[in-house]
Design brief:
Elements: H1 2-11, E1 22-28, E2 31-36, E3 41-45, E4 60-65, E5 72-77, E6 81-86, E7 91-95, E8 110-115, E9 121-126, E10 130-135, E11 140-144, E12 159-164, E13 171-176, E14 180-185, E15 190-194, E16 209-215, E17 221-224, E18 232-237, E19 242-246, E20 263-268, E21 275-280, E22 284-289, E23 294-298, E24 313-319, E25 325-330, E26 334-339, E27 344-348, E28 363-369, E29 385-388, E30 395-400, E31 408-413, E32 418-422, E33 428-430, E34 437-445, E35 448-456
Antiparallel strand pairs: 1-2, 2-3, 3-4, 5-6, 6-7, 7-8, 9-10, 10-11, 11-12, 13-14, 14-15, 15-16, 17-18, 18-19, 19-20, 21-22, 22-23, 23-24, 25-26, 26-27, 27-28, 29-30, 30-33, 31-32, 31-34, 34-35
Length: about 450
């Protein structure tokens, strides 16, 4: 593990890789989605709602192209549906629709992107089964599941059409959480509504609210968490301070406590005044400072903090040495982030392939989500080639269809450096001489090639 962590530090020190293609990311539960620099949309991890548009419900462990459009600008993934904006500002939705979370006026599941309305939009956010968007006129709209008042429309009735929240037209940002919602107005005031059993609204009570309630009066707010937090909330004030409230059973608030440390009012996290972005998962938190450093705290039982351990942290802990972090997103037990060079990194729980690295093995430190050979893993190949075990310590075994003859095998690192070449006469490859890390195994057969990523322990 020590050797693996050293490799992670080297990779994040600013060395360019072959994965410089990602511009946006979003994560929820066991799914990750991202937009590449060419405007195409990709998904990996759980596909239980069929929203990867592959015609099945099979999970994918490498990024899989969603549709064929190449003009996507923003994306937000919920537990069973996806919202996305195109470069022309139009709003699109697809996936399950049993709560009306697509907003098309029905409760019918859509297996392809469906345009919602004819307006142009600026921001989007998805909760568990709810959806939110800020229109180009700065009005705020909501639809979908509303059992806890999380839509903020004054009742607890589900809505399958876009419904305006209040009459104000000065909304700046929105963050849908599990069953509660936060939003900031243009004047820097913070508002919250929905489920509140752990004080996650931050109004000093545990009483559910179905209409926007102002939070943290006297503080001017600048940024909300960029993904869903379950029963807790974080936000950044305009002076760069970071604040948290709600459930703290895993130390996810970062105030040095757990369990009884539940807060129903915004509580400042440390004394730092240089926080830039924050993202909350189910029970862990990621944050970026203005110097580009990455920090994490909270639950770590699947390595979702990325510090090379599975030990939970109750205070912000710096991850690696890179000063290039630009975007972050946290899911159920996994994390992902993009550096300023457009490389994408992921770590933590990987049972559904949500790390996008071609395996379903948990990783305790950031690993590169490559752009090359995208879609090439055991779920995407023709079922004629597979390798095991993965991760491997000493030997990789290659299994093939009886009629398939492999003519050449090459093993490279993610930078393309060749470590091994063989004529393919043997179905067992000795990898004991390789350092711990991730590699690409390329097999050439009858003029075609297969590439599978594997991890050397």
């Amino acid at each position: 593990m020590k050797k693996l962590y050293i490799i992670f530090l080297i990779l994040l020190s600013g060395i360019a890789t072959n994965a410089q293609c990602w511009s946006k990311i979003s994560a929820y539960w066991y799914t990750s989605v991202g937009i590449k620099n060419d405007g195409t949309l990709w998904g990996w991890g759980s596909n239980g709602s069929g929203f990867f548009l592959t015609g099945d419900y099979v999970s994918r462990s490498t990024p899989t192209l969603i549709g064929t459009d190449a003009n996507w600008m923003e994306v937000s993934v919920g537990s069973q549906h996806i919202l996305a904006l195109k470069t022309n500002g139009t709003l699109w939705a697809w996936g399950y629709n049993s709560f009306g979370q697509l907003g098309d006026g029905t409760n019918i599941t859509r297996n392809s992107p469906t345009q919602i309305g004819t307006s142009t939009w600026l921001k989007i956010s998805t909760g568990q089964n709810s959806s939110f968007a800020i229109r180009s006129d700065s009005t705020l709209w909501a639809w979908g599941g509303n059992s806890s008042g999380q839509l903020g429309v004054g009742n607890t009735t589900d809505q399958n059409v876009l419904t305006q929240i209040g009459v104000g037209s000065k909304w700046k940002s929105i963050a849908a959480n599990y069953n509660h919602t936060l939003a900031i107005k243009a004047d820097g005031t913070l508002w919250a509504w929905g489920e509140n059993s752990f004080g996650q609204l931050g109004d000093g009570t545990n009483i559910q609210k179905s209409s926007p309630t102002q939070i943290g009066i006297g503080i001017t707010w600048s940024r909300l968490s960029e993904s869903a937090g379950v029963q807790f909330s974080l936000a950044i004030a305009t002076n760069g301070t970071l604040w948290g409230w709600g459930n703290n059973s895993y130390g996810q608030l970062g105030n040095g406590t757990t369990g009884s440390g539940v807060r129903s009012n915004p509580t400042q996290i440390g004394t730092a005044t240089d926080w830039q972005k924050v993202s909350t998962g189910s029970d862990h938190t990621l944050a970026i400072k203005t110097d580009g450093t990455l920090w994490a705290w909270g639950g770590n039982y699947r390595g979702q903090l990325g510090d090379g351990t599975t030990i939970q942290k109750t205070e912000p802990t710096r991850i690696g040495i890179s000063t290039m972090w630009q975007k972050i997103a946290a899911g159920q037990g996994h994390s992902t982030g993009v550096l300023t060079d457009a490389t994408n990194w992921a770590w933590g729980y990987n049972g559904f392939g949500e790390l996008g690295i071609g395996s379903q093995v948990d990783i305790f430190f950031p690993v590169n989500v490559s752009c090359i050979n995208v879609g090439l893993d055991n779920t995407e190949l023709k079922n004629d080639v597979s390798v095991y075990p993965n991760p491997a310590a000493e030997t990789l075994t290659i299994t093939t269809d009886l009629n398939l003859i492999i003519n050449k095998i090459t093993i490279t690192d993610l930078l393309g450096k060749i470590f091994l070449e063989t004529n393919g006469n043997s179905n067992q490859i000795d990898v004991s001489m390789l350092d711990s890390g991730m590699y690409l195994l390329k097999m050439i057969s009858e003029g075609n090639s297969r590439t599978i990523r594997f991890i050397k322990k």
